[in-house]
Batch of 3 targets.
Target 1
Amino acid sequence: MMRVYRCPLSLAQYHVALWHRHAPGFVQGHKYSLAAYKNGVLVGVAIVGRPVARGLDNGKTLEVRRVSTDGTRNACSALLAEARRRALADNVERLITYTFLGESGVSLRAIGATVEPLRLRGDWTNRERRRDGPHADRRWELLPINITTAPNASDR
C-alpha cells in the first residue's frame, strides 16, 4: 500500500537529484514537500511551491515544481493527487505544473488534470532568450478538478 506524507525539503531535493530525468537542480524554497512510501520504502518525492512565473504568483496559485520517483508504479499519481488534496485543503484556487511535449502526462491525466499548450510570444525584451536549459512545453491545471475526465472508482 502506498502512503504519502509531508517531508523536509532537503529530503525531497536529495531524491530529486538522484532520480529526476532532466531537472535535477535544487528548487529554491517551497510551500511543502511530499514523500511517497510503499511498504515502508521511499519511492517518490514531490516539491510544491509558489509559481516561477511572476504573473501567476498571485497568492492563490501553487506550482508542482518537481516530481521524482524510483519508477514504482503509481507513485507519481499518488504524489500529484496528494498535492492536489493539500492545495484544496489550503483553499488554493489553482495548482499547476509543466511538462515537455515528449512526456506523456499519463499520471496527470490519471488524476483528471487538463493540459493547456504553451505559446511562445515574440521577444519581450531586447536581450536574447536563454536557450541553454530545458523549457517546458505544456502547462497542466490540477485544479479545479475536471469532473468529465477524472476517473471514477467504478471505472477501475
Target 2
Amino acid sequence: MKEEFNIEIKKDLKYFAGHSLGEYSALVASGSLNFSDALILLHERGKSMQEAVPEGKGSMLAVMGLKLPELNKYISEVKKEKGVCEVANDNSYSQIILSGDKSAIDEISTILKNNKKKSIFLPVSAPFHCSLMAPAEERLALDLNAASFVNPIVPLINNVAAEVVQTATAIRDGLRRQVCNPVRWEESIRHLILLGVDHFVEVGPGRVLTGLMRSIDRLQNTSNVEDVKSLEKLTL
C-alpha cells in the first residue's frame, strides 16, 4: 500500500534535490538508494567527518547580505598562514556559509565586521564542506563504492555540480565530492527554475529551505510537508 502511494506521488514529481545530508533523503525518495543503506552511509559519513578535524580546530561562519563574487574578495584578504577559509554553502543571496580553520574563519569574521558586513558563527562540531574534510572523503569513498545504487526513477539535482544526474555512477561520485566541496543550493534552485519547475515542496520539519527560496526567487510557488496532515493537503 505504501509503495503504491509512493509511486503515485512520483508521477507528479519531475526532480528531487536535497541540501547536504538531505541529498541522501532525496536519493531514497528518488528510488536510487535503499533506506537502510542510506542510514548506514549517513552514520559512516557523520563519523568520518567528525573525526577528520580535531575538535576546536575548525569553524563555520554564516555571512548575510553578500553575493558570492563580493564575498570572495574578502576571502582573498585572509592571510594564507591562517589556514583554510572556503565557501561551504552557497545557500542564497542572503546567506553564504564559510568553513575552514578556526584562525582563518576568525580573521574573515573580523574583516567582514570592519567592512560593516553581517556574519554569525555557527555552533557546529566540525568545518564541513571544505578541503579539511579530505580524510573523511577518502573514508566515505570506500563505503559509497560498497553500497548499492541504481539509476533514480526521478532525476536528482546534486549539490556538488548543481546539475541533473540520472545514473548511479554520477550519484555516487557526487556524494563523495560533496564532502569537501560546497553545497551549491542557490545554483541548484535556479537550474530547476530554468528546467521549468514552478512548484517546490520542502519535506521535513521547519521551513528553512522555503525561507531560502524567498531570497532566491520569491515568485516561485512553495509548499511544506512535515506530517501526515500537511501531506494530505499537498496539491501539485
Target 3
Amino acid sequence: MIDREGLEPYLTSDSDTTYLINFWATWCKPCVEEMPDFIKLNDELKGKAFKMVLISLDFPSQIESRLKPYIAENDIEAEIVVLDDPNSNAWIPLVSDEWSGAIPATLLYNREKRSFYEQKLDYKKLKEIVKHYIKF
C-alpha cells in the first residue's frame, strides 16, 4: 500500500526500461474488461526491458474480499500496488496534467518519452502504443 510519496518513484525512471503504469480498480467495469489484454501484453513482453505496474484504487476495506481474489483468479503476475491517498488532487497531476481522475488510465514512459491514455485500451491498441517504446 502506498500514498502520494510512495507513488512518485513509479512515475519516472532513468533506466532503459519501458514502464506501463495502469490505474484501475476491481469495482471499475472497463478496468476489469481491459485487464486480460494487459495480462496478455505483460506475458508477451517477458524478458524484455519492460515493466508493468498495476496501481489499484480499490478501497482498503476491499483488498482481502475483492482485490486479492481477483488477482489470484486471473493469475496476474505484474506488480500490483494499492494507492491509498484520499487527496487525489495532490497525486493526479503527478501522473499527467491531462488526467481528469477517471479510470482506467494508463501511463507509458521510458527515459526518452511519455504518453498518457485516459480510456479503456484493448490488446490491439496496447500493442500499437507500446511498439513505439519497445520492439516485440
